[in-house]
Amino acid sequence: MMDATDVIYHRVAGIDVSKNDAKVCVRVPSSARSNTYRESVTTWGSTVPEIMALRVFLEEQHLDLVVMESTSDYWKPFFYLFEDTIPVRLVNARQARNLPGRKTDVSDAHWLAKTASWGMLAPSFVPPPPIRALRDLTRARTTVTQYRVRELQRLEKYLENTGSKLSSVVSDLDGVSSKLILHALVAGERNPQALAALARGRLTSKIAQLEQALAGIRFTDHDAFMVRFHLDELDAQDARLAALDTQIVEAFAPFRGQIAILSTIPGVKTATAQIIIAETGADMSAFPTAAHLASWAGVAPGNNESAGRHKPAPTTNGNNYLRGALGQTALNIAKQKHGFLPDRYKRITNHRGKSRAIVAIEHSLITAIWNMLAHGLCYEEPPIHDTDQTKTDRNRQHALKELRQLGYEVTLTRAA
């Protein structure tokens, strides 16, 4: 158990934030006895006037450190109003977990104050206001894009009610030909030949298949209303995405250099680069090493050791938006045929499977991103040492190992 000599911060406060209030424990040196501390707990509301009154109260205490933890986003009003005048830190609730059986908001505030005074709580990364604005835009775009995908899935699912197999012929219900056919159905056209004749581009080679997929469908006025509803919803989401894209281009104007640097990574598109900048802040000083950033992003292997034995552990919990962007980039890389990262993906897939290979590529990406943003460097393809000769040598050694395990002694002689 730690004692008074282990204290790093002598005047601290721990705040446990909930939706309607906050429990605040102030821990300061006691005037009655040396090397002891006096703790007092007060409750404050979560409205802006009450938070401002709490800020004045904390400023009067002349604190060295204020830490807070919260579920959901209830910490944001407190942190945003404190960050300019108070040395405040947001800490991870997992790190600040209290002893089991003593879990109350008041005891949590006490525990936060104690562990903060010992310097045991690492601060969570909270970006500055300009980066928070970028996050709002990119996260909104991600959310609308996900809604749009689900809306397309609902439309495809509803078309099955009518007997239509349009989605079995076309690759995308969101394509030009698909929308022409669907709008014609809504308008009252039921002739499969007339509907199939609306095909454009490469789909014109599948006229016969379209006629078969649209023949005999049961498309009532109710079905027309529902399909129109889904199409209108898709159009509305397209309009939202267009408005977001316009605002995003303007907001990311100061980061064109970083976007250009990140876009040199194979598989990283402009939208992905924008997400990376919005989530990390593009300032790598917040992350001491690439390993710190990988852990924060959630693409670092977990560590679970007990009694000298390493047990399986999932990857670290991280930033879902950043990890989603890294995962999409890794999938794009997996489809490429040549290059350092595609070759690495194929090599790991052969031994560990696709899921582990994707995580490994994500880790390689975030390591490259940290180095590129920290030093202002463009991506350079690492040399590929896995030549045909090394592959041959590796295959030979693997075959020899298997034969020895089966009990054979093997002598190799090169064929003429």
Description of the structure:
The protein is an alpha/beta fold and 416 residues long. The chain has helices spanning 48-60, 76-82, 105-117, 129-159, 166-169, 176-187, 192-196, 207-214, 221-251, 256-262, 270-280, 290-297, 320-334, 340-352, 354-375, 388-405; strands at 12-17, 21-29, 37-45, 65-70, 88-90, 305-306, 309-310. Strands 3-2-1-4-5 form a five-stranded mixed sheet. Strand 6 (305-306) and strand 7 form a beta hairpin. The chain is extended and about 95 Å long.
Identify the notable features of this structure and list them briefly.
Nucleotidyltransferase, domain 5, alpha/beta, single chain, 9% strand, five-stranded mixed beta sheet, 7 strands, 16 helices, 3 domains, two-stranded antiparallel sheet, Helix Hairpins, 416 residues
Cα(first) to Cα(last) distance is: 74 Å
Number of domain units: 3
Strand-residue proportion: 5-15%
Order of helices and strands: EEEHEHEHHHHHHHHHHEEHHHH
- CATH fold label of the largest domain: Helix Hairpins
